[in-house]
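Running co-folding for adenosine-5'-diphosphate.
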Amino acid sequence: MSIIEKAVEKLNSTAIDHRPVHPHGESGTVSDAGHDGLEQTRLVGRDQSPVSKSSIAPNVYKPVDIEISFEDLAERGMVTPDSPRSPIAEEYRSIKRPLLTNIEGKGAVVLRHPNLIMVTSALQGEGKTFSAINLAMSIAMEQDKTVLLVDADIAKASAARLLGVPDSSPGLIDVLEDDNVYIGDVILHTNIPNLRIVPAGRMHDRPTELLASQSMYKVVEELAERYADRVVIFDSPPLLLTNEAQVVASLVGQIVFVIAAEQTSQRAVSEALDMLDEEVMVGMILNKTKHTFTNKYGYGYGYGYGYGNTRETN
Ligand SMILES: Nc1ncnc2c1ncn2[C@@H]1O[C@H](COP(=O)(O)OP(=O)(O)O)[C@@H](O)[C@H]1O
Ligand SMILES: [Mg+2]
C-alpha cells in the first residue's frame, strides 16, 4: 500500500463530526466590501491614485501590479495559462476538481469555509509553493473563478517572489501587525485577470506569533466571508516544523497536503495528519514521483491524488 493510500485510509478511519455550517458563510460579496474591496483600494505610497469606488463594477479595466512571466513558470515546470493542455495542466485539472466541487457545495459534506484552501506538508521543500502556485494558476484559468494566492509561509516566503513580486511589497505581515492596513490594501493584481496575490510582506522576527494571533483569525474570517466568491489559496508553513501551520489549518475549510514521494517518511505524514482538525477536508498530492515518460530526460515529476474525507453528512 502506498503512503498516500495509507494516509487516506487513516483519514477515513478518523471520527465523524457534524460541525454546523457557519451562519455567515458565503454571504459576503465584493459589492458589500467596504474600504478594502478587492478592486478599490491601493496602499497609499505605492499607488497614490486609489481606484474609485465606482470602478468595482465588473469588466472595468484594472491596473496590473505584477506581470507574471509565463516563460519563467514554464521553465520551472509549472502550469501556465498559455499551455492549458500541458501534462502539468492536465494533472492540476484533476487535482482542482474535488476542491471546486466542495466550494460549490456539491461535495459529500458541507464545509465551513470551503473557499479557503491551505496548501501544506509535513516538512520543508516538499512542494507546497510549487503546488500552491499551480493550483492557483489552474483555478484562475476557469472562466468564472477569481483566485487570491496568499503567501502565508511568512518565515520562508517564496510564492510571491516566484511570480515576480518584489520582496519589499507590503503583505499579510503588514495587515497582521498594523490595524490600519487591510487585506484589500495589499492585494496585487496580475496580468492574469483572475489571479490576485497577497505577498507575505516585510520580514518579521516573530512570524509564529503573528500567524497565531487573533488578527490572523480576523483576516481569515474576512477573506472567507467578504470574499466568499473568491478561491483563497494559502501557501503555508510546514505542519511539523511550525506551530502557526496548525493555526492556519484550523481556520480553513480545505487542506491540500503535499507528500514528496520517496522523501517524506510515513511517520512524518502520519504525525502531520494527526495535527489536523477532523472537520477539515483533506486532499493529498503525491509530488515528485518519478515518471520515465514525462520528459526527454526520462526523469520527471508526477502527482497522485487521494481524497480523504473526515466526516459524512448523515
Ligand atoms: N513536481 C515538481 N516538479 C518540479 N519541481 C518541483 C516539483 N515540486 C517541487 N519542485 C521544486 O522543488 C523545490 C522545493 O519546492 P517548494 O515548492 O519550494 O517546497 P516547499 O514550499 O514545500 O518548501 C523548488 O525548487 C520547486 O520548484
Ligand atoms: Mg514554500
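Result summary
The chain has one domain: 3-12+22-308.
Residues 11 and 274 are 9 Å apart (CA to CA).
Job closed.
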